[in-house]
Amino acid sequence: xxxxxxxxxxxxYFGEDAEKIRYIExxxxxxxxxxGYMEAITPILEEFELFALKGGEELRNTMxxxxxxxxxxxxxxxxxxxxxxxxxxxxxxxxxxPIRLYYIGTVYRYDEPQFGRYREFRQAGxxxxxxxSINADLEVLSILWEFFKKIGLENITIKINNIAIYxxxxxxxxxxxxxxxxLLHLIDKGNKDxxxxxxxxxxxxxxLNIIREMLYNSISKESDFIELIKDLNNEHSKVLENQISRLxxxxxxxxxxxxxxxxxxxxxxxxxxxxGVIFEVTHPSVSFSxxxxxxxxxxxxxxxxxxxxxxxxxxxxxxxxxxxxxLKIKDNVRxxxxxxxxxxxxxxxxxxxxxLHENDIPAILNTKNISLSKIIPILLDMxxxxxxxxxxxxxxxxxxxxxxxxxxxxSSISLNDLLPYIRQII
Length: 426
Description:
By secondary structure, this protein is α+β, with helices and mostly antiparallel strands. The protein is 42% helix and 20% strand.
């Protein structure tokens, strides 16, 4: 017996729930298009290695993977950025930079299902490829804030950090990339003590102290941070100083514009390809982030392409919806049904339907072969409140009878007067 339930961790949406998802996606699309981003549509199925190469420990362990009939190891996309980079390498390298792209679609991760975490969920995001300036960071973060303002979620917090600071400190300890990624994974999972314990065995006190201060958010000012690193090796301290300055400059510019932004030096994101500024969006009503992103300047090169500094973000559509619990999709348009009384008038009924649809007026055609008295209660149950009734006389006289199912009032209207009359009453 086939089960009627969706697979574990997946969910059906219909009616108002589906409309809410589309509302979030549509508002997102409007915002990013205004900023010059063009849509990219990529396959759900990709080569496993595309995501595994630099996806990080957690992502590799939660991907839906299988071997296809051609013997290729493939995966359902767990996120979009690698697909966008592949698209760029395959089709867009010749275009002027930066290239601004956006996407909306489903992604798949074999996580343990819980509130705010599904195995199939939706992401909407942007990627800017081919620009390394701070202006690119500011544009992307500004668009993120603009979207949340648009949907009425202004009580969010955008947490920012610069992963380049951690990576530079780790490089001073001559760590391998795998070691760096593992420690960043531990930080992302909140295992700060394990990181300190690991570093205490291989690190000099000064570097260990800087990392400890970052992990426990003990640094509040740029000047304090610069003071903390001043005695390090000159080559590394200059890189660190530039990355610290970039982080605080982004914060200061956006804070002046009343963006709800906060520096969180303990913030680390799970994806291993981040190289610079990273950020997450939180909301007080839930424990998980509802959006996130960052700079990934080396990913294109990692896939064999030219140096292409890039930055982007993704929102979790269902996660955003979870904090928009009181969202009401406005639908003030009165619903219309066209009722042909017999087969002889169906052609005329369809003509009326076409007129309404061509003028963007929603209407349905009654398909039930039952009496008018029995149709009306059914239409009321379907929230239809206007009936356009068409019989032999209406067809002959080029008219329609319009009945308000709520007030029971009925009028006979010439077909030529139909549109202005309908627009007046809906």
